[in-house]
């Protein structure tokens, strides 16, 4: 792996871009930024409907006995979402952002209907294939567009707001779905809100969302000017322009060659590995512990709820304190929280572990995206974000397989303990390989 020497524009780079089309900054673009937050909340709401219901649906409605079989819907979701992230990033660099966003919503429209009318578990798998594409295209694109709009100074804050909206909606949607399932049945009522989410997201994206690719082009122009003026061209080209890097180069840099980007990618993968565990196995674990579906829905919602709300603070905090320490500490806290889960019992104690897990994830999630944005050149940043999100969401695949196999062979407690240990070790690895990416540090 290549040691990092990250090239970033100086603080006195030109503040007035020559084009009136692209004026970066949160204040200058607050209307579009707010609109994209709302759109991303609908994206999160789509996936939140599944988090407390679908594992139970597999056992009770379709009679699945194997934990691995129950978690197969996460496996299908994770594979296609990871690939959709990769293509979303590359297509956003090639053809623009808005078309990718609209395509994601069109693909997501049938998802709630497929789940509502599914006559067999195979239909649930197909629905989650489409949901994975929807999540990959839409969530990736809203991330990229917010990075475009906000400029380099407030990336941590921007990612915190984005992820807070998305996972806040995941939490509320999870709790609502659990309530509807407890009040009515597992189908169709918990999935009816998904129809409204998909239609609202599509209409907003078609009518009000504007293309943001010009902001990235403008930032690339300013970076090139700053590089020439300060004679930084001789340094290592982590921030090389897109003209000099093929997609293969970008993939290898983000995945392995650049130590910091490797550290970010592995942490993202392990983070979503334990999120796949939480999504697929925690409801079964809590049900085996004697909780009813209402309390299972609350526990399933506490974790993304704390995760979402806390990102309002952690994203902005990473702009002040730096990225690396928060990533390392967040991964270790997640590992500890997961490891505690089998050691305690009851709704109260399990609520505490879910709060800790949410806090640990909040430290990590927006900070990883901000670190990618710090390192990657604006012209290939969307592609790099796509590669990172490819690795991150492959964590769902690995998590579902590992949790299912371990649970079937050794029991749920072992599955939870092993993934908790892997998560803690991911924080140790990040400490070893990463460099600080925040420009002024």
Could you explain how this protein is built, in words?
It is built from 18 helices and no strands. The protein is mainly α. The two termini are 23 Å apart.
Q: Per the principal axes of the C-alpha atoms, what is the gross shape?
A: globular
Helical residue percent? over 70%
Task: Report on the biggest sheet.
Answer: none
Give me the CATH superfamily: MFS general substrate transporter like domains
The name of the CATH topology is Growth Hormone, Chain: A
Classify the beta-strand content into a percent band. Answer: under 5%
Q: Treating each run of at least 4 consecutive H or I residues as one helix, how many helices? A: 18
- Spans of at least 5 consecutive residues whose pLDDT stays below 50 are 2-19, 231-237
In the CATH hierarchy, what is the architecture at level 2? Up-down Bundle
**End-to-end span in angstroms?**
23 Å
Mean model confidence by pLDDT? 85
Region (Disordered): 1-21
Membrane topology: Multi-pass membrane protein
Main location: membrane
Pfam families: MFS_1
